[in-house]
Specification:
The protein has 425 residues and is mainly beta. The protein is built from three helices and 32 strands. The protein has a four-stranded antiparallel sheet, with no helix packed on it. It has a four-stranded antiparallel sheet with strand order 4-5-6-7, with no helix packed on it. It has a four-stranded antiparallel sheet with strand order 8-9-10-11, with no helix packed on it. Strand 24 and strand 25 form a beta hairpin.
């Protein structure tokens, strides 16, 4: 997965390219501690909307919108950013590619790449407002080398504003375009027997969590005929929704947020399959994360966090987002257990006090160590998840109650769900 990062307050905004890996396309591990992999140096020295694509010769390209942090979205800009790589770990210098020179008064948003077998070249679709129009369309520019590109053509015009394209080719003899339909606020789909500009016809109204849903990303399962459709939202910002279904029929059902975890603060993702060797090379070069996010089983999208030194669970996104990051240390009183150390308050741990769980600085005493240690066991509500038994009170488990963390004896199905977590990145 590629993405850029934003947070609710803007404090976590990073207009650079981030990468993450996954074994199942659902749970994603950010590389390099969720820090940038590619930092723009050309143009405005900022990017949004990165798109990763494997080229026909096995090499890679990343393209992205040219917008700085805090920049004017509608500022005219005919260029996009380009990086190329033979292996995802050795990258070219950042360069600009002019894709929209005949629309000097417009933007060039959210580039995406597909192969055009008739032209024997790559198409780069992007959002723009051509001269003479009062609404945005999906345009296309063609390139063979990502150094030079043709003047743009209108690829898809819905008669009202559309943005954020993803083209998937060669599915059952047809080609598919998904986009954000501004008139309906939905991620809609069109299809064509060719990939010619102007040939696509809308075939499904698509999906949306709300009218702020945008940035459709289509992903084919590697193990079945199913497809996934990712979309992110800007209200609240930096939150993904995920639908599963059938691309050909255009029918989708929304997945629960227990079933996937995008990188923290990620925006506008791009997903491409890689080999096991690719994954190993990426992790060897960049590593994953040094921290974890404990995720609630029965409150989708809620994660263990601290606020005013009290432990609880809250729904992401929120700020300060660092409150949700934890380093799972060997148990302070027993190395066979775990202790939760705060990333943004180093030396502070989750510790039970009169069965309530608070964030407290380690005072080095044996008592502190015992009250801050938990034993990780199979999840009480789902054995594929985890539960955490108190070292100080072996019949009690870490759980949330009214969104506050406690250690309690577990007797009911609700208790078991409250005491079940997944430790993700």
């Amino acid at each position: 997965m590629g993405c850029f990062k934003e947070s609710l307050s803007g404090a976590g905004n990073i207009n650079a390219v981030h990468l993450a890996v996954s074994d199942d396309g659902r749970e994603w591990t950010p590389l390099k501690d969720n820090e940038p992999i590619l930092t723009p140096t050309a143009g405005t020295k900022g990017i949004r909307d990165p798109f990763v694509h494997r080229l026909n010769d096995g090499t890679w390209v990343v393209v992205a919108t040219d917008i700085p942090v805090g920049g004017d979205f509608t500022r005219p800009d005919p260029y996009i950013h380009v990086w190329t790589s033979p292996d995802l770990v050795n990258w070219s210098a950042d360069r600009l590619l002019k894709v929209n020179g005949t629309n000097p008064d417009s933007y060039s948003w959210a580039p995406a790449v597909h192969w055009d077998p008739v032209r024997n070249t790559y198409g780069i679709t992007f959002s723009t407002m051509p001269q003479g129009r009062s609404y945005s369309v999906i345009a296309v520019s063609y390139t063979t080398d990502f150094v030079d590109a043709t003047d743009p053509q209108v690829f898809y015009d819905a008669g009202s504003g559309v943005i954020d394209s993803h083209v998937v080719t060669g599915v059952g003899g047809l080609n598919y375009l998904y986009y954000k339909d501004n008139a309906t606020g939905r991620l809609a789909g069109a299809r064509s027997a060719s990939v010619e500009p102007g040939s696509f016809t809308k075939y499904t109204a698509g999906v949306a969590e709300n009218r702020c849903t945008e940035a459709p990303t289509l992903v084919k399962s590697l193990t079945s005929a199913d497809w996934s459709l990712w979309g992110d939202t800007f209200c609240p910002n930096a939150r993904f929704d995920l639908w599963q279904g059938d691309l050909v029929s255009g029918t989708w059902s929304q997945g629960g947020r227990q079933s996937y975890t995008a990188p923290l603060n990620a925006k506008h993702n791009t997903v491409h399959p890689i080999t096991a060797s690719d994954r190993n090379h990426l992790l060897a070069r960049y590593s994953g994360t040094s921290w974890n996010l404990p995720k609630s089983y029965n409150y989708p999208g809620h994660y263990v966090r601290h606020a005013n030194y009290s432990g609880g669970v809250s729904e992401l996104p929120f700020d300060p987002y660092q409150d949700v990051q934890w380093r799972l240390r060997p148990g302070l009183s027993d190395s066979g257990g775990v202790s939760f150390e705060s990333v943004d308050f180093p030396g502070h741990y989750l510790k039970q006090e009169n069965f309530a769980v608070r964030l407290v600085r380690n005072d080095g005493t044996a008592g502190f160590a015992t009250y801050a240690t938990f034993f990780r066991v199979p999840g009480l509500a789902d054995g594929a998840w985890s539960s955490f038994r108190s070292a100080a009170h072996p019949t009690r488990y870490l759980r949330h109650s009214s969104f506050a963390l406690r250690i309690d004896e577990i007797t009911t199905a609700t208790d078991r769900s409250d005491a079940t977590f997944r430790v993700v990145h």
